[in-house]
Design brief:
This protein is of the alpha/beta class and about 150 residues long. It has one domain: 3-Layer(aba) Sandwich (Rossmann fold), CATH 3.40.50. The chain has helices at about 15-30, 50-75, 80, 95-105, 120-125, 130-135, and strands at about 5-10, 35-40, 85-90, 110-115, 140-145. The protein has a five-stranded parallel beta sheet, with helices on both faces. Strand 1, helix 1 and strand 2 (about 35-40) form a beta-alpha-beta unit. About 25% of the residues are buried.
């Protein structure tokens, strides 16, 4: 089975980088397209320490850092990505919502994302991004674990 349109969600964790490698390989072997998506999960809060302007500047800094990280990942993976049609996007919002929406809008055949153990109380109560994506996606989903070398 080959997948023509592969969406890969990345958060630059070890697991998501393993997912990226797997997604790129699947796209290369299957002659598919690759869509890299990074979602900045900005949690709104009101702070007496930061004004509106400073909060806006912080959001821009997050996006600039994410953009630089994606550019660096793509540049470092040039040989793996050679010949693969590639789209990248940085968005804000709940990661699982953004992944599901982009996969639907782009008509992805497969979503690839990394698996991580629960790292916060919120994940224990609400569930992980991977779990939400598996439940909400209208296409196939591949969860990749980093190798235990």
């Amino acid at each position: 089975m080959s997948f023509g349109r592969i969406l890969c969600a990345i958060d630059f964790s070890e697991a998501s980088l393993a997912a990226f490698q797997q997604a790129a390989e699947m796209a290369r072997v299957g002659g598919g397209e690759l869509y890299l998506l990074h979602s900045i999960e900005a949690r709104p809060y009101v702070s007496d320490l930061l004004g509106i302007n400073e909060m806006g500047e912080t959001a821009v800094e997050f996006e600039e850092k994410a953009s630089a990280a994606i550019e660096s990942l793509v540049a470092a993976s040039g040989s793996i990505l050679q010949g693969i049609p590639l789209n990248t996007e940085i968005t804000t919002g709940r990661a699982y919502v953004e992944v599901i929406n982009r996969a639907r809008d782009w008509r992805a055949d497969l979503i690839v994302l990394g698996a991580r153990g629960a790292t916060s109380v919120e994940q224990l109560v609400v569930g992980s991004t991977a779990e939400h994506v598996m439940k909400g996606a209208s296409c196939s989903v591949l969860i990749v674990r980093p190798s235990q070398a």
